[in-house]
């Protein structure tokens, strides 16, 4: 059942070219220049007239939600808030029948997300679900939704479900933006063409980074802390990279927006602090370059994720992982792959049970 892989997690990491393809299948019709999503189409007016969209989720799904915020605000120009379901439900949030709530959940069974949806519905909001498990509780109580179609995810650490959530959120943002006029046809066509190429790029990055990341991981088996940094779309990707590492390797890791480093975390940096920095060409590259220099000046050990052919960041970093270029909005999908592999191999070398980490369950049905 593990298809020749040592763990479900590794199998699921390697399934991503296919799972992303499955998420796009039947929805992204590049030649016709359309995105077909019945759940969005049927409620297009309500969605596009929303004054605010609130995304609720937990864990990795919450990280996907943060990237969803960037996507929807950039392309559809609708204000988005992202909340932990567990915070949202206990704080009497301002939600009316004019609100749209998007709930994201791989399992579709997370207790806090479920309770938050019920509360939003009682307040009259229209609730849209993004679930992976077909016919799960959340997919049944939401007013409409889209499945991620990533296939069963067995490893407790979410991998392919995350990249499929990002893919669905990209489709939604582009479709809303196209229909509400905020996205020009030309820009729309350019972005959907790139979206269509993602499965191929994910395959490429798996092939080109797998062995290399496995080697890099050996250098960090004894680390006690890790810092993950990224900007813009890759800030949530940094949070997700850190979550993966802490869940399965039990190494303490934190994600930060790179520019926040100087407001505190920089005090932690010395030769014992490994720092993973996501630094694609787009998205304030020059700022990232100076962040990397600041870290090096304090002797931090840098693992940099850069686009192919990068020299500036690469020349300062201790370890370099190259990944293919895309528009900034899709870069978290690509950058997440080596981060998953890094967490996986560090955990494996430390002898941890990666598929079933201690104290964790695949779906958290307790509050
Ligand atoms: O099934 P859900 O997406 O609702 O689960 C939410 C979180 O419990 C989940 O993402 C958790 O953080 C994972 N173990 C992350 O790898």
TrEMBL record:
Assembly and binders: Homodimer.
One Gene Ontology CC term in the entry: cytosol
Keyword Repeat: yes
Domain SIS: 43-182, 216-357
UniProtKB keywords: Aminotransferase, Cytoplasm, Glutamine amidotransferase, Repeat, Transferase
Primary localization class, coarse: cytoplasm
Gene name tied to this protein: glmS
Active-site residues (renumbered): 362 (for fru-6p isomerization activity)
Taxonomy, superkingdom: Bacteria
Protein role: Catalyzes the first step in hexosamine metabolism, converting fructose-6P into glucosamine-6P using glutamine as a nitrogen source.
Any one biological process term the GO annotation gives: fructose 6-phosphate metabolic process
Catalytic activity, EC: 2.6.1.16
Catalytic activity: D-fructose 6-phosphate + L-glutamine = D-glucosamine 6-phosphate + L-glutamate
GO molecular function: carbohydrate derivative binding; glutamine-fructose-6-phosphate transaminase (isomerizing) activity
Location(s) in or outside the cell: Cytoplasm
Record-given protein name: Glutamine--fructose-6-phosphate aminotransferase [isomerizing]
Keyword NAD annotated: no
Coiled coil region boundaries: none
């Amino acid at each position: 059942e593990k298809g020749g892989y040592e763990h479900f997690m590794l199998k699921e990491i390697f399934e991503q070219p296919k799972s992303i393809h499955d998420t796009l299948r039947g929805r992204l019709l590049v030649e016709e220049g359309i995105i077909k999503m019945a759940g969005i189409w049927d409620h297009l007016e309500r969605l596009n007239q929303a004054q605010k969209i609130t995304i609720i989720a937990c864990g990795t799904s919450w990280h996907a939600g943060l990237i969803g915020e960037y996507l929807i605000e950039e392309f559809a120009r609708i204000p988005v808030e992202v909340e932990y379901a567990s915070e949202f439900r206990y704080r009497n949030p301002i939600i009316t029948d004019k609100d749209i709530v998007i709930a994201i959940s791989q399992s579709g069974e997370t207790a806090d997300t479920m309770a938050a949806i019920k509360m939003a519905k009682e307040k009259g909001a229209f609730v849209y679900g993004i679930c992976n498990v077909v016919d799960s509780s959340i997919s049944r109580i939401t007013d409409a939704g889209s499945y991620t179609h990533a296939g069963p995810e067995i490893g407790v650490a979410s991998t392919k479900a995350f990249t499929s959530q990002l893919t669905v959120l990209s489709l939604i943002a582009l479709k809303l933006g196209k229909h509400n006029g905020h996205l020009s046809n030309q820009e729309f066509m350019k972005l959907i063409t790139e979206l269509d190429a993602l499965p191929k790029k994910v395959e490429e990055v798996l092939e080109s980074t797998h062995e290399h990341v496995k080697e890099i991981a050996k250098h960090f088996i004894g680390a006690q802390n890790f810092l993950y940094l990224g900007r813009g779309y890759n800030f949530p990707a940094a949070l997700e990279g850190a979550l993966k590492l802490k869940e399965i390797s039990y190494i303490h890791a934190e994600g930060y927006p790179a520019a926040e480093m100087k407001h505190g975390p920089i005090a932690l940096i010395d030769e014992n602090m490994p720092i993973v920095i996501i630094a694609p060409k787009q998205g304030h590259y020059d700022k990232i370059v100076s962040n990397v220099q600041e870290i090096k000046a304090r002797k931090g050990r840098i693992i940099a994720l850069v686009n192919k052919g990068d020299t500036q960041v690469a020349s300062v970093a201790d370890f370099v992982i190259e990944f293919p270029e895309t528009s900034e909005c899709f870069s978290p999908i690509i950058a997440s792959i080596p981060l998953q592999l890094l967490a996986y191999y560090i955990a494996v070398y430390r002898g941890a049970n990666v598929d079933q980490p201690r104290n964790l369950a695949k779906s958290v049905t307790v509050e």
